Amino acid sequence: MDNHYHWVLEAPEANLVEGMTWFQNAFTRRINARNRLWGHLFGGRYKAILIEGNLGAVGYTGRWQRDYLSEVIDYVHLNPCRARLAGPGHETRPSVADYPWSSVAMGYALPPKKRPGHLHGDTFTLLDLKDTAPGRRGFVRRLDEIAAAEEELDVASSESSPRRSVYELFDRGWVHSSKTFREIVLEAFGPAETKEPSRSANSNYRSSELGKAFSESEARHLLAEGLRHFDLDDSSVARTAKGDWRKVAIAWAISERTTVRQEWIAEHLNLKSASNVS
Known about the structure:
Layout: H1 16-35, E1 50-51, H2 68-82, H3 104-108, H4 122-126, H5 133-153, H6 164-172, E2 175-176, H7 179-189, H8 191-194, H9 203-207, H10 209-229, H11 234-239, H12 245-257, H13 262-268, H14 274-277
Parallel strand pairs: 1-2
């Protein structure tokens, strides 16, 4: 795109930061050297979103089978259509494959020998297609059909669209996955494991969707631990007074160790309001 790019990549090792630092710095230096420019090329730091692989897929009510990975790949390939740079209705580029600066035109519409080595051939398998001439035509035709349907339905602004979540993902999301996968990630990499104190963490991190998700995961852990310690359950929490010292102790622990809102604590400990938590 004019001021950013989207890149779906698989990192077999935990080295995304090092890889992206090298890539963006090297790319910027070479562009600046070639064009006698200086300074930043990209608008800001890259944003990384974790995507669950092709497991536990849920079905669309439409024609295509949905899974989280292929949904994001479709979003990236259809981005030029949404920007009116190609696709149905465009005067000179009526197909997704007519946009020259994407992995469709530069890769997946071409035979394997003409395709850049970094493009993953399993993308065809993911969509139940074969990497043959008919399969590649089907790959492009499928994207064109989705683009035409989105143009007709104005998917980007439709609250009821099953694809709406992908648009919101790039605005403020950190993971695109099932609830189970999300919980596994939070359990494995939350503040309790990294030993990072929530209150002293970077303010941008705390206010991010990822920071909020980790904080809520830790709050749920503390809530469960506190209820177990004081031999309470949901029914007893509902019956006890809002000033019960056990509930106050749990609320204090959650407030001290996480950044969840006081409304969240009030709701889960039946404290009626945020002011009671305060």
